[in-house]
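Example record for the data management plan.
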Amino acid sequence: MNTSLKWIKDLVPGLQATPQEYADAMTLSGTKAEGYEAFDKDLCNIVIGQIQKIEKHPDADKLVVCQVDVGQEEPVQIVTGAPNVKEGQKVPVVLDGGRVAGGHDGSKTEGGIKIKKGKLRGVVSNGMMCSIEELGSSKDMYPNAPEEGIYIFDDSVTVGADAVKQLGLDDVSVEYEITSNRVDCFSVLGIAREAAATFDLPFQPPVVTPTGNAEDVNDYIKVRVDDLTLCPRYTARVVKNIRIEPSPEWMQRRLMAQGIRPINNIVDITNYVMEEYGQPMHAYDLDTIAGKQIIVRRAEQNETFVTLDGQERVLDDTVLMICDADKPVGIAGIMGGENSMITDNVTTMLFEAACFDGTNIRRSSKKIGMRTDASGKFEKGLDPNNAMDAMNRACQLIEQLGAGEVVGGAVDVYPDKKEGRRILFEPDKYNRLLGTSLAPEQMLAYFKKIDLGYDANTSEVLIPSRRQDLECGADLAEEVARFYGYDKIETTLPSGEATTGKLSFKLRVEAVARDVAEYCGFSQGMVYSFESPKVFDKLLLPKDSPLRQAVVISNPLGEDFSIMRTISLNGMLTSLATNYNRRNKDVRLYELGNIYLPKELPLAELPDERMQFTLGMYGEGDFFTMKGVIEEFLQQAGMHKKPEYDPNAEKPFLHPGRQANVCYDGQVIGYFGEVHPTVAANYSMKERVYVAVIDMPFVVKMADFDRKYTGIAKFPAVTRDLSMVCPKQILAGDIEKIIESNGGSYLESYRLFDIYEGNQIKLGYKSLAYSITFRASDRTLDDEAVSEPVQKIIKALEETGVELRK
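Corresponding structural encoding:
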């Protein structure tokens, strides 16, 4: 959004800030000024001169010598080759030592071109007469400028006056970064209202007076809106006896400062009101409107329409159209049609100011491949209460400029009037939020500056409909902050638990996972959540695996990123493979990232996002190394029970004999094992690869960081070693359960210190040896106290088919 600073100052009398002061103050008050450009920054010492006498140059056929009155005692002699100079003309003259912006070709030089007194083919020239390009503008902005040659003023200008000011180039264009929720600031009036509040000055909008003759507009036009959702308000007025001519200089200058080329009075009025009020308008030739009726309806599927630019557009039934009794005449909010355009022969004109659904306008604009200044404003979601104000302003300008005769009355289809909001006024809450101690009266004074009302009976702030960004108390606190001054708010600590520096419980568990992994030599990796469906085949997942039911991306970057991952192994194996192919010998990686499990397909609600703690390694280490890392993590997370392992994990991507589910308190919380050789080959790895995946939501639910202190043991421990032979199918975990359940209250710990399979053991059996430690906290244990639990353990082992080695 750009505005003319002179225009803003006209609406805010008393505003004397320099462009830099203005930009800084507006930025601090919340209307961020990206920068500004002074139109006259490269212009200096340029006045209006009048050519008194023209003589041929003695030594050049294409040069003439002019005597120019510039308001000084003596005329100034200037040599020029301009083809359009005549005696009596008033022209812009840059005097000796002055600067111009560029050349006849429109090229510009940083800092301008300095003009010095000199000689042209032996004749003294004390200055230069300027073209519009040399003044830093173009014929697009000054339609009366000649194609070639110097700019010619009309006779009303004063000789010796400032030519830059006369041309309106003594202005500054300020560029703002306006957020989409501040629709009111996409207009000159909106910016001026903010400037008035920022500098604590009165805001004086234009006074709009009633217009219209004694006739009734309803005798000229009827309006029917078939889709009030997409067009909540439609207003129309009629102007007859149209007179097309150039708009006045003041309007042209303001439009040019906004970067809009003046065309004629009718077009310029619609553009002027769009810039001033932020309300796009459109004008139709009423004589081309069949049945003198406007119908606002959706387009038919594959309906075609030729817009003002002469292009045929193919539409669908989501595009809103403006139609007459027989045909479409415009695409709502985007562009009018060629069949109803304003020409120089127009006699009666229909003015339209409406409010359309912003989302629909954006989508329609994208579908038909056309984005206009009007659609850019409608996309933001305009205030429907602004439409009639803009219409009345346009009609006032029609009468003021003598462009036509406004017919009395207006058509206004507005069945569901939009009302402003009411928000409870809570000054104490705002002070706590901001860390300030402002009085309620001071806050209300800030609100008054931006036209927010106050109902003392209900203690509510009244929000006008144009302020769509104010929805709750936090928004009002922001209004207080920006006018009090962000730079005045002292630095304070936020209140609440955050001041203690704690992480949430979930993040604390994740931090433990990182610490344990990194302590065990793993480096953290980050992988994409988007994957390819080909991943499932690489991991040997069956065709009916539920993991193949993935969320499909609507607009993927490509097939390799077309679904949301349902398993975290592909990213880990891809990273390990990259390291393997770069000849890194021993690699350990971990990742904390989400998988996305849809509850149903097609999606009816958001998928279940589950954080996975994924570990992967190759090189040094084996199955039991990975098992140790898992147990260390669970212990550090406060899960004091020993995990159990189920070898019947049946994971197709893991080695069938070297995998296990990790179980805790009867629930599967993850799995680990050696990667299936075929899967490893699919990832171009020829090493044994080990992975583990722990489902973090289960861990967070079961973790406990409460620690109970136990003193250092004062009495010695008693150790017993048990060596046994058991069938291979009996797991060490099963034996350890027996030791725990029969070890009694004095059992302190146990440790598997030997395992053997070989010729000295019968086929199908293995030898295990455990060291079991007993200790009492109040006495030294004797042999009798230890023998009883040991015998219970031995008896329970023998009942399961375990033989004690003697």
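Summary line stored alongside the record: Residues 29 and 483 are 6 Å apart (CA to CA).
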